[in-house]
Specification:
Layout (H helix, E strand, L loop, with lengths): L2 E14 L8 E8 L20 E8 L16 E4 L5 E2 L3 E3 L2 E4 L11 E6 L10
Length: 126
C-alpha cells in the first residue's frame, strides 16, 4: 500500500472534431494534470495499485461549480479547504440534484477527495 497524491485542474479548452481534417475546433471543459497545461480529452490518467490511498486535489478555472466522481470506488471522502473530511454526498438545489458529489464552488481554491483503491480495474472518473 502506498500513498498517491494527484492534482487536477478543471479548465476550458478546445478540441478538434474527429473527421474534420483538423478544421473544426469545439470548446470544452476538461482536466489537466498541472496548472500550466491545457485540458486534455480524455483527462489525465491516475495510475495506482489496488490498496493505495489516493488523494486528489481539484482546482478549477471554470466559473461554475465543479466536481469529480470516482465510479467503482467506495468510501470516498471529501474536504474543502476550510472543512473536515466527510463522506461524499449528492448536492441539491431547489429539490433538484445538481451534482452526484460535493462540488468545488467557483470562489473556492480547492476541494480534496480521498479514497482507497479497493477494486482493481480501469475506471473513468468524471
Amino acid at each position: 500500500m502506498a500513498l498517491a497524491f494527484r492534482s487536477l485542474w478543471a479548465k476550458t479548452g478546445t478540441i478538434l472534431l474527429p473527421g474534420s481534417a483538423g478544421t473544426v475546433q469545439v470548446p470544452f471543459w476538461g482536466f489537466s494534470g498541472s496548472e500550466q497545461d491545457s485540458p486534455i480529452f480524455p483527462g489525465p490518467v491516475l495510475e495506482v495499485r489496488e490498496g493505495d490511498i489516493i488523494t486528489v486535489t481539484l482546482r478549477s478555472e471554470i466559473p461554475f461549480p465543479t466536481s469529480l466522481v470516482f465510479p467503482g470506488q467506495t468510501g470516498v471522502l471529501v474536504r474543502r479547504e476550510t472543512g473536515v473530511w466527510k463522506r461524499v454526498s449528492p448536492e441539491y438545489a431547489g429539490g433538484i440534484m445538481t451534482s452526484f458529489t460535493d462540488s468545488l464552488a467557483a470562489e473556492e481554491a480547492w476541494v480534496r477527495y480521498l479514497f482507497r483503491a479497493a477494486r482493481p480495474g480501469v475506471f473513468l472518473c468524471f
